[in-house]
């Protein structure tokens, strides 16, 4: 029997023992966060701040609009591992911190997400058409031909304008961008 048609019998684990939070822009006014906080991260918090503070605090997400230099807290359920977050501003750079809070003014972050940019909520006024040959992504093989324009959206320059170095961009997982392509499509076969 073909392996593709056989059912997957491998059970997915409930957790992977990692501490990680990932942020995704769903639409102009909603971002989605999912996370996992390892037991060692919880023990680290209790060792550092005490069991009493752990019991008095509740889990929360601190949503930071880096473009407008503002933030707000979202108090979440103790057992939650993901959350849809409504945001007011479009075309803004966001980051989320997961942590514990006693009040609106007292928040202790445990982990910080990647950055996302919320899209605009209007149709673009640009009528130009740009194409990217994604098979050459990251290989500096972009070229201009008379009938085609290959344009690489230079994420590194964009983030440098925000004060982020190219080293931070290329090394840090905070800058993982979703292009809708797998790494196999990007770098696998041509």
Name a few traits of the molecule.
190 residues, alpha+beta, Immunoglobulin-like, 3-stranded antiparallel sheet, 28% strand, flat
Give the secondary structure arrangement, pairings included.
Elements: E1 20-27, E2 30-36, H1 39-49, H2 51-56, E3 58-65, E4 70-75, E5 82-86, E6 93-103, E7 106-112, E8 116-117, H3 155-161, H4 166-171, H5 183-187
Antiparallel strand pairs: 1-2, 2-5, 3-4, 3-6, 6-7, 6-8
Structural notes for this entry:
- This protein has helices at 39-49, 51-56, 155-161, 166-171, 183-187, and strands at 20-27, 30-36, 58-65, 70-75, 82-86, 93-103, 106-112, 116-117.
- It is α+β, with helices and mostly antiparallel strands and 190 residues long.
- The chain folds into two domains: 20-117, Immunoglobulin-like, CATH 2.60.40; 134-187, no CATH class.
- Strands 3, 4, 6, 7 and 8 form a five-stranded antiparallel beta sheet that branches. A three-stranded antiparallel beta sheet has the order 1-2-5, with no helix packed on it.
- Strand 1 and strand 2 (30-36) form a beta hairpin.
- The protein is flat and about 60 Å long.
- The model is unreliable at 141-186 (pLDDT under 50).
